[in-house]
């Protein structure tokens, strides 16, 4: 289970301070909420890590073939427009948006929201917290998001200006217009 430290009003981390804290504590997965709370997430177990990898490798192979953008793993931080720093389990950014970043911006937490993100619910995650994170991504510009819960075999699909779509035990997911011709087979996840 993640631990949330409410630092304010005693302490307000600047983006630079948070980046330094994350650098010093590379063995921890840290996120920063828009309100300045520090979230410390435990490492995943083997099953969840393997499922994350299965999703990441499929997206990575599709991206290598299409060259439409850049794909990222769960260690990549995105500094969202609301000030939060989040690390989706798997994410992708359209190539034009990546190319618009300076070389210096590419080396740090990326100062934008990804176009696509996946959150895979692990045994230590709280579903409501993960849903809130998906909504935060949407509010900050996410175009397509998947919340995948292997235990219940459900997928929640998040899209701009549309209600969340819930699928029970789908065999595949489509990248739709965001990731053209990308199909994720969920058999390795279930």
UniProtKB/TrEMBL annotation:
Pfam families found in the cross-reference section: Uma2 (PF05685)
Residues annotated as domain Putative restriction endonuclease: 17-186
Keyword list, A-Z: Endonuclease, Hydrolase, Nuclease
Annotated SUPFAM superfamilies: Restriction endonuclease-like
Nuclease among keywords: yes
Superkingdom per UniProt: Bacteria
GO molecular function: endonuclease activity
Name the record gives this protein: Uma2 family endonuclease
The species this protein was found in: Laspinema palackyanum D2a
């Amino acid at each position: 289970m993640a631990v949330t430290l409410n630092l304010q009003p005693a302490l307000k981390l600047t983006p630079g301070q948070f980046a330094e804290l994350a650098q010093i504590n590379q063995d921890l997965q840290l996120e920063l909420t828009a309100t300045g709370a520090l979230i410390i997430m435990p490492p995943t177990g083997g099953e969840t890590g393997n499922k994350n990898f299965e999703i990441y490798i499929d997206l990575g192979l599709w991206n290598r073939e299409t060259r439409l953008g850049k794909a990222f793993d769960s260690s990549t931080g995105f500094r969202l427009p609301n000030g939060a720093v989040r690390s989706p389990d798997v994410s992708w950014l359209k190539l034009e948006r990546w190319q618009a970043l300076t070389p210096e911006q590419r080396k740090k937490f990326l100062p934008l929201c990804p176009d696509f993100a996946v959150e895979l619910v692990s045994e230590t995650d709280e579903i409501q917290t993960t849903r809130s994170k998906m909504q935060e991504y949407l509010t900050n510009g996410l175009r397509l998001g998947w919340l995948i819960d292997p235990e219940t075999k459900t997928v929640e699909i998040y899209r701009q200006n549309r209600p969340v779509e819930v699928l029970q035990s789908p065999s595949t997911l489509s990248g739709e217009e965001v990731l053209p011709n990308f199909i994720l087979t969920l058999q390795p996840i279930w």
